Fold these 2 entries.
Entry 1:
Amino acid sequence: MVDELHTFDGAQGADVACLIRRLKERLRTAPGSLICVGTSATLGNTVGGSPAGNPAADRTAELVRYATKVFGEKFEAGSVVGETLQPADQFLGKLVQWFAVPGLEEKEKLNPLAYRNQIDYVRAQHQIWFGDQGHLSGPGTDEWNLALGERLRSHLFLRNLLVLMDGRAVDVNDLLRLIQARIPGFGKKEDGEYVAWLLSSFLSLVSEARTGGQPGEPLLPFLQVRYQFWARELARVVSSVARTPQWRLAGDLKTEELRRSLPIVHCRECGLTGWAGTVKDLEQRVNPDLDTFYKAYFDFKPEARFLFPGEGIGLSLQMELPQFLCPNCLHFERMTDPRDCSNCGKPAGDMIRVWVPDMNVRQERRGGARIRSEHICPACGGQDSLTIVGSRAASLTAVMIAQLYGSPFNSDKKLLAFSDNVQDASHRAGFFKARTFTFNLRSAIQKTVEDAGGTVALSDIAGRFDAYWSQRLVRAEQMIATFLPTDMEWLEDYEYMRRENALPAGSNLRDLVRKRLDWEIWSEYTLDCRVGRTLEKSGCSTVEVSPTLVESAAESILLRLQNELGGLRSLDALTLLRFLQGFLVNLKNRGAVEQAEVPRFLRAGAETYALG
Ligand SMILES: [Zn+2]
Ligand SMILES: [Zn+2]
């Protein structure tokens, strides 16, 4: 299949033509047995069923000659599939029979989140717009979907919608405003959420409806519904240095504005947010240059500095004088009370109280000591939890894919991902696949846990997971195809399985996958539970230490602590309990939880290679 067929003329056309011929030669393809397809958006209206002698027919003949040359296969006039545009009134044809639009009193029934799946939602929406059609089985059956198309064709709302859209793609917010302003019954005061749900409801019916269906032919979509969601890459996000900071993308700012804006860091554990930049040794001025900061940050260089608005947290800070940042020249200094900026003279009232924690630690190494700027959150102590605010296109896309694939309203999952860069494409594909593995695994774990119908011991989840899924994916090959992580695809048995559709005799791949999944499930609830969209962070399921066990542990050590440790004489039961709970959660989040592979890892001197 060759896309943008019209671009393959001249040298590039010859290139593709030779490639296709080589491919056929290598595969020993007999003439006429390779199906070649060329597509192009720019050829659109120049072809179609025009009578002979017409220029359009000439163009069709020209196109046939062209395709024959490129692909080296026979094409006929009938091979050329064009498009014919049908005007709205011709498409609608019928008289209007349905007028009513669901009113505000139906709002709750329009809410998609009130339904468990697509079928329930569509059935309810149909009932709202067209009343009960109980004699038909559906939705989802051909009969029902065809009948729906006919009903929609005679609904006034579809006509109005087509008039408002006027043959163009329309921003959904503009469309909602148009509906409110132009369709009778939607006053300006009308609830915006209700109108949005109403439009979704109607469009979901249009998407479900089918047309055509001559005997022996497949049904066609009633209308093509295309919903586009545009998101901009959140790269180089900066914040103005002001009392009320504003977040912007550096690419949108003028040099002058960039000089008073700084990159943003935040803690993914506790949400602490602040400015960042670099500071040279003895200088008291933040350098806002983004590339310098990014480099220093990712190299853990001591020049990287973090400035949090407001007062600091922690006892040692009370001894020190407060610091103030000048929003004009980014100069910062310690003073008891704000004074005019000693660098640029900006008045005292404009100075911003900040807290600049010392993040540097001394590291002894074989070649001597070095100073390293850590990314430990100064407020909550989260390890490596201080991250730069922003998200690149690849990560955003991976999240969108996971969202679409996890939705109960997506029963027919398909994905086409485009990249603006050919070299990048296979890397992106690998990235999405690896991320998709994690997201799929998470929903599979969650299903297992929900199936248990109550609290499950962490040590039982892996076993339950295997039992639950091998009941559904009966053959070992199905289990492997569903849950094999991308970094195990190189294994010989997997290659064999892909080729032969079965595992080789005596294969241990199923066991390897099981072992790996045990580890992944354990990490999901412990070591990795706070990084990314985990089951814990998305509020699906989490691990806790049994409260009764912690309580009895606290009870049994309270007296000893009070008697044997001088400073703890006045320790009370509640404080101890809280401390223990927090301490255990921290242990869990750092992976201090028993797992089959961990002893081997520890014996090898905490060598991660031993885990492989
Ligand atoms: Zn934090
Ligand atoms: Zn200043």
Note: The pocket of zinc ion (ligand 2) is lined by residues 326, 328-329, 331, 341, 343-344, 346 (CB under 6 Å).
Entry 2:
Amino acid sequence: MLGEVDKQHERGHNSTLSFGKAPCCYLSREAGVLLGVLMIGVVVGTGLLVHYLAPHTYPNLSTPHSQHFDVDVFAPPRQEKRADARTTSKPLSSHHSSPPPPPPPPLPPSTTSSPPSTSPQPDVMKGQKKESLSGIEQKTETEGKEEMTHEERMEWLRLPLSLKPLHYLVKLQPLINGNFSILGYVEVEVEVLEATTNFTLHIADIITNNNTVKLMESGVEEEEGLGREVVIRRHQYDHQREFYIAHLEEALQKGNKYTLSMEFTGLLNDQLHGFYRSNYRNANGTEVWLASTQFQANDARRAFPCFDEPGLKATFEIHLARQTNMTTISNMPIKETIHMVGGEGWVWDHYHTTVPMSTYLLAFVVSDLAHNNSTDLDDILFRVWTREEALPQANYALDIGPRILTFFTDYFNLSYPLPKLDMVAVPDFPALGMENWGLVIYSEIGMLYEAGVSSAANKQLAGMVVSHELAHQWFGDLVTPKWWSEIWLNEGFASYVEHLGIDHIEPSWNILEQFVIRRLQGVFVKDSLHSSNPVIYNAMNGNTIIYSKGASIIRMMNHFLGDGTFRSGVSDYLSTLKYDNAVSDDLWEHLTLAAHRDGTLPTNLTVKTIMDTWTLQMGYPVITVKRNNDGNSVTVTQERFLLTRQENSEDTHDYKWWVPLTYTDQAEADFSQTQPKVWMKDSEAQITIPHLATKDHWVIFNLHQTAYYRVNYDLHNWHLLTSQLLSQHTAIATINRAQIIDDAMDLARGGLVPYATALDLLGYLPQERDYVPWWAAFENLKFLKNMLTYTAGYGPFKRYVRDLVLPLYSTMGLDDHLDDPVLDQYMRQKAVSWACFTGLPDCLHHALAAFNAWRETPHRNNITANLKSTVYCHAIAEGGEEEWRFAWHQYLESNVGTEKDNLLSALGCSKKPWILSRYLEMAFNESSGIKKQDARRVFGSVARNEVGQPLAWTFLQDNFDRIHAYSANALKGLMKSVTTSFNRETQLKELESLHAAHKGQVSSNPLDMMEMLERVRHNVDWTQRHYQEVMAWLQNRGYHTTLPTHHRPSDSQRAHG
Ligand SMILES: [Zn+2]
């Protein structure tokens, strides 16, 4: 799965400085209460259909029935919450949309047998006190319940080990054009691993009828198709763990097989998880509804009762009902379509039984979406689906998809195992893409690309997401982690090999160079916080550590093992464990076998020995290289790199790593050897490396930054590197120039190198013409920008940046060509974006002129796709209501996801507080025309705007509960975007009190909130330690914070620029 705001997919929104974003990849599990309430109303309001559920003949909802039945509601809430549910959960009515489904009638008298619960969610983070290295010691305070550690709670959430699901039959009839309920039936056959009197499986937001639950023993009197029924003594619903438990009269016997069946009613929710509803407006302006799924990590249980853990693989026979004017898609091809008895205008699509797979990879789409077929693959049906009007935008995905699939088949030396692959872009989707086996689902920007309208970055994004999800067909789908703590095996691999797939298709993108800045450097800052987490970490949700650090350490392995060894080890791992589950040790074992076979590791060293230090510990080392007195040897030491040292830290773990050392010096200047010359063991505090060039020659460690560590040098070596960059920077490999910039700036940020040393080093940038070093510089300047925005130093800083970027801006120019090399297009976008940020008159003039020309002829937009976000943003920033309204109108009109995306971000660039306040209100009201999934994009663009930031923060504080109810899973992203530039004590206090007031509501992972707090504490600390230091450096170079006390004409002229 790939989150929408993953850092690697920089799309240059908001033209100023909106680039790096943290990933967010999974859905939070909020709002179950509200859904539960809504469902009671929905079902009752439509005639209590549960009695009519029968495997093959579901009635159409047009006939109401009102018979009494016993309903067991999964999430009966408190009375006062019910009013909220109806006002916040259903689609908001508006003059823009066609009439919503009939509102639910008054709630029925409670007939539930399950106890009331205030929350059906696994409240993983209530009252989290402290996160340790692995989270093991951390205690969880629960309200009135016993204390549980994070690990204990994660264990407590697991299903009992007594049953193993073998096969499911799932029948679902989603009433897309009705009241959004789902009529369902499930049968699941299990094998008993340990005798038990409980039959426990997952269920959430589902209404069952206890009378329909049947448990039959298999193999008994099967000829008559009856079996022997096991009597259920009591039905229990455990809301916290989302369990249904059938308490049985007799014990199920080990080795025997049983089948549980039940009828149920679910809901096509509007929360973009489980089986959910989505809509769009077609070419005729008609609102069209469809249904899609998103099950990772644990939302399959919202679609049907199941054993919803990744390790519990089974086969699935899926039946989906549809109206005849729609289509259904699932993981496998359709076996047959049959008329629905008693369902006029309805049919059932019966699907072929799946291969053994995990529940979170199942998927269903029921829609009127259109599709195109590829003819590139002989034996695999490959199709792309999207809104009919957007179908041409799917051509790129249709072109590259089959080629990437073929590439991975070859790379992993293992065939794609299913007979077909569908890729679907749905109008509402909570992530960029999701790798459901044989049915990959994307958001529109994750798959669609319109030549001439979308930018080069949009194209790269679509390419990378497609490559990522197709890599998952092997890593994740075919071989699946045993539990979520090993999810890095999925995400780390997909996030690494997606680059190999794209490099094969689009070699001109230099994507392997881009990896270093987007993935490795992109995660370094987060991983230098105390609130980081190890790659192997027991939580339901992935984060950037799991994705980007995971990918970075896999790349490191690829280099220290060598390509041949790495590939054969990976291929053995996949083919040995196909259709099964794995843990990291399985991968280490296969890679070690390959390494010993090939002689790339000594026989007394295993991959596990090395990699345990990178996966079980959080953080990473800074390797310090100091020249010895003899002049041609160096002493190398390692210690954990932290941005801020905590004097009173309770973390006593001795952080040491197995470090592959590669290096070169000025005399040799050979950057090609990326297999280690020396291993630094985790037991070694320091080592000496002899035979380097003499003292007046520089040394560089970590060639091409293939290993996951930073390098610090003695000041003499830093000065030698700076001199080299100034005299002839290309003597140092491109990636290593980016590495030196990023290391120097972050070491300065952490207090290990003087800022003067780091900023002096950036002085060569006016000569730099490569994208990757510039990116590293911009990312680090962005941090300074965030720290200085509300200080007296902001003006001098902007003038400094303008001088730095001006030569690049002049060289790249504004004349954009879509057939230029992609990295040149990116470079131009960056140069223009930063030049306009500094207020360069030429840049602003061109931006306004281009925008105004578009306003003159609204149906002909000549602004080049790459510069749209910058042009839109600055035109709206400089303009007023008229410019804003024009852009808003264009947003409503546009049929292209990427264009809508650009406009939504740019609309947050206004400098008018009242416009921004109005925009914030619109973001959390779907009737405004802004989709729920885009709320965080809108909020983020306002929060990153220096005028909007205080407004966004106040809005968030004032409307926390409303935002939480509207889109709980967006909260983390909103909080991150608005706190990025917090660096004052008062802001820290406000954040702390918000955290205290809303414990557990921002994210289900307690580390997310701890990270935000730690970042702000770091910013406060940085301001105290380094603000004056940076100001002094600027002052020394003529960028003054103070104004002259006497008027001189030349000053006013200069200030005007
Ligand atoms: Zn993924």
Note: The pocket of zinc ion is lined by residues 1-2, 468, 472, 491, 494 (CB under 6 Å).
